[in-house]
Specification:
Strand content of chain B: 5-15%
Order of helices and strands of chain B: HEEEHEHEEEH
Number of helices of chain B: 4
Strand content of chain A: 35-45%
Distance between the termini of chain A: 69 Å
Oligomer: heterodimer
Structural class of chain B: alpha/beta
Distance between the termini of chain B: 88 Å
Largest sheet of chain B: 5 strands, mixed
Helix content of chain B: 25-40%
Order of helices and strands of chain A: HEEEEEEEEEEEE
Shape of chain A: elongated
Strand order of the largest sheet of chain A: 1-3-9-6
Radius of gyration of chain A: 25 Å
Number of strands of chain B: 7
Number of strands of chain A: 12
Chain lengths: 172, 213
Amino acid sequence: MTAPNMFSRSLLAAVLFAAGLPIAFCQQDSLTSSPQKSVLKSHAVEYLYPEQVSVPAGKPSPVTLHFRIQQNLHINSHTPRADFLIPTSFSIPETSGVKLADATYPAGADFALPSDPDQKLSVYTGDFTIQARIVSTPGNHLVEAKLRYQACDQTQCLPPKTITVPIDVIGK
Amino acid sequence: MKRNTIVIGITILILATFAWAGWANWMYRKQAAERALASASTAELIPAAPGDVPPGGASLTGKPAPNFMLEDLSGNKVSLSSYKGKPLLINFWATWCGPCKIETPWLVDLQNEYGPKGFQIIGISTEGDDLKPGDTEGWAHDKAAIAKFIKQEHMQYPVLINGDSLANAYGGLDAMPTSVYVNRDGKVVAMQLGISSKEDMEAHIRKAMGEGQ
């Protein structure tokens, strides 16, 4: 094979390879980006982080838990203004090796439904945090904490939900 | 040698161009995918408007309202068929639902106004907790909350419990309130997901009664 021929073939191979790159990217992308519908079945609140915390064993230790509420929805704050509304509350199962000493919730924001503008609700929207203090026994604990909430938009409400908040707690 | 250098240079240039194009395309699609995912993660609680229907509920319009047999708070069994020949509003609601609390006084007024003409509202508490029949503590809790709500809101129309058991028949009942308007022939003439206005409800009631179409 002559040198020019070799280079021509190399050039052709390179062009074909390069031309395939965008296609490969697109194919991978289309597999990973298919949006999940049936959103009413999904959770209105998502736990963001932390996934893992390291705390001194036996001592109350602060952990800041971050959550995100889906767009266009609100959930009742920990202290809603009417007793029929379900408050947002965080808990840790007693059997997990980690105890919840206490939890401090953010203040709710004032919100009124368009159909009743005079009635102010106390709600969370967007991102919010709960400041928890936990007491861990020594060792690693995969804690399945719980967040209970009830979400609505401006005209309707979803049933109350309890989601799992997984936290890997390392007590040292 | 000079020719080889030119070919290699052109090759590198073409490779770089394609690589850049691929990268740019990938970034663009990635951002589009993120936008799509963000959009998909937005709860599709569709703003209520006249004629809104819950997902799956559209198929009920024009069809016979699915029959049911539920209990009231006293344990009496009540069936839809016992209201045969009456225009109805079947209102699914829940004790924890703020919009339900807002529209209940409208329902009380509308029952007072149109009841003498044969119209009937049936409230069905749908707490969304899917209690098992043997969960006595759960039912006792729910019944206490329902009774309190009925008393506070002066609900004079029949209220039944365990609307969750009708979810499949009535389009999912994913969100509260959900209102189903039924004419004298027992056919669904309109469904409303979420709260709209007293005027909208009245228009649907008149349609169920065969008055303003």
